[in-house]
Amino acid sequence: MSISPLMELNDIHKSFGNVDALKGVSISINAGECHCLLGDNGAGKSTFIKIMSGVHQPTKGQININGKPIEINNPREAIDVGIATVYQDLALIPLMSVSRNFWLGRELTKKVGPVTLMDFEKCDSILMSEMDKIGIKLRDPSQSIGTLSGGERQTVAIARAVFFGAKILILDEPTSALGVYQTSNVLKTIERVREKGVAVVFISHNVSHALAVGDKFTVLSRGETLGTAKAGEIDFQELQLMMSGNKELSELKK
Amino acid sequence: MSDDIKNNSNLRSNFRTVMLRPDLGAIVGVILVFLFFFLVARDTGMFSLEGSMNWGIVSSQFIIIAVGACLLMIAGEFDLSVGSMIGFAGIVIAVTSVVWGWPVWLSIISAFAISMAIGALIGYITISTNLPSFIVSLAFLYILRGLTIFIAIISTKKTIIGGVTEVAQDDWLAPIFGGEIFTGVFQWLAEQGIIQTFVAGTKAGQPVVSGIPMMMVWALGLIVFAHFLLTKTRFGNWIYASGGDAQAAKHIGVPVNRVKILMFVFTAFCATVFATTQVIEFGSASADRGVLKEFEAIISVVIGGALLTGGYGSVIGAALGAVIFGVVQQGLFFIGVESSLFRVFLGVLLLLAVILNTHVRKLITGAK
């Protein structure tokens, strides 16, 4: 009995009116693996992750989870099957405190007489220990997200997704707006999450960031998969060339 | 040595926390306003029991509408129809009770139901068209005012409908909006000579202040309710999130549309509370009542430290903003300053508050 991949997407097509954004994309994602999805702007990366996270539905193609075909009709259903997406700029709300952000939508509550209140004490203490685990030193849980650096915000968003039971974590360009130091922190976080057995889908157009953490690399170009390679089978030059030159993986391997 | 540094940074962090309180400006403002009038108007009777009741009631009126506007603004929306809603709800009560002969309690409940349904409609249109609520509610500012005058004219050929006092006499619900509480306490205090009594006229022997008006009770009740809802419950967390970044909140699964529509309903509720207390107090409804109230509510909220862009603010701040409003308006009257200067003051205050808030926002979000 072979172990089926955690999530498989086969021959995914997506058209918006006359525009074919995706023309047959296939990847398979395994637990504890960081799968990098590379491609230039307009290659179809964001359409593809929106299909994975339930924002769009494919025009054609099949999605399997644990070997069973499913349909993901909206973001809620994606979350229910363990798919969490951390968007580049839509991750957190800067004016709200770290604690309020972390628990947003899943607030812990307690009953006080006839009313249900947020249990701030519990929320804050769990938050502080979670932040400690991922190496963010918070002054206090009520400081606003806006006071954290871009890298720390990404890290908080990732920690939140994993804490709430994400099995597949989709990261949309988590490092594209960050400096070198912050990028390395986010990459470390990805590593830590992967070790916990979470499947990470890392979307980027930065090849060196992808090579630093990736186990597998899939290159998208003009809505099609150019091929998938494992870490060690491919180097920086080749990936870079594929992204820009649109060459088939098989051609490059010769 | 390192302890020193730590203490120092703790101190700075505490200072920062205080600086970032949304209602700090309003707290300072209230202190300054009271200090000023205490120095200037001490001898005018402004701070006697009777005088305090005067600006207390005016402040309460501002508070009632500011609380609704506050939660709505934090949820990221505006309602410019508040003033028209006040006029509309008042006329609904007067027409149904005086002209149609409904019992007053039924008129009041109907006014609440209709206003809140219109609030929901404004919210629904805003959400479903994706238009700024500024424009949608501006449309309702005109629609409701026009309807109010139309209803008053076709049913009575007048824009002022009186006679509510007579029909409300034995009503069970009307006193909840127009009555007073603790009247016994005030009577007793007067008998003890602690508070003054009227010396002449029909009220001779009665205390100058006969009780706490329900208007004040409503104001206090709404502050407590809204502050609690906003800061202590999960729904409050959703209000912040809906105004802070609606898209991000939706992605996380917050029912942003429901939150926003409910806040429009709550604003309409507050406007109707205001309208009802006025109708019961004056015994009449006027089709032009509530003009400019929407802006007074919004100004109170902004003075209270809320950001016009949503996601940040405080109910306590908005209430204090309303108190500044009430104290200054009545205070200028006490010291005999030309009342038109009140508007000049307001404009200046609004400008200062917005500049301060923008600065605070930069501090919180770390934006340059």
Could you characterize what this model shows?
The complex is a heterodimer of chains A (254) and B (368). Chain A has helices spanning 45-52, 75-80, 98-103, 120-133, 150-163, 180-195, 207-213, 236-245, 249-253; strands at residues 7-16, 19-29, 34-39, 60-65, 68-70, 83-86, 109-112, 115-118, 168-172, 199-204, 216-221, 224-230. Chain A is an alpha/beta fold. In chain A, strands 6-9-10-3-11-12 form a six-stranded mixed beta sheet, sandwiched between helices. In chain A, helix 6 links the parallel strand 9 and strand 10 (199-204). With 368 residues, chain B is an all-alpha fold. Helices cover 73% and strands 2% of the residues of chain B. Chain B contains 16 helices and four strands. Chain B has helices at residues 2-19, 24-41, 49-74, 82-99, 104-129, 133-156, 164-167, 174-178, 183-191, 214-232, 234-244, 246-252, 256-282, 293-303, 315-334, 341-365; strands at 160-161, 180-181, 212-213, 285-286. In chain B, the strands form two sheets. In chain B, strands 1-4 form a two-stranded antiparallel ribbon. A two-stranded antiparallel ribbon of chain B has the order 2-3. In chain B, helix 3 (49-74) packs across helix 14 and helix 5 (104-129) packs antiparallel against helix 13. The mean pLDDT of chain B is 90. The A-B interface holds A 75-76, 79, 85, 87, 90-96, 100, 103-105, 107, 109, 115-118, 139, 144, 146-147 and B 13, 20, 232-234, 236-238, 240-241, 244-245, 247-249, 251-254, 307, 311-312, 361, 364-367.
Beta fraction of chain B:
under 5%
CATH topology of chain B, by name, is ABC transporter involved in vitamin B12 uptake, BtuC
- Overall outline of chain B: globular
**Broad shape of chain A:** globular
Name the average pLDDT of chain B. 90
Q: How much strand of chain A?
A: 25-35%
Residues in helices of chain B, as a percent range: over 70%
| Helix/sheet category of chain B | mainly alpha
| SS elements, strand count of chain A | 12
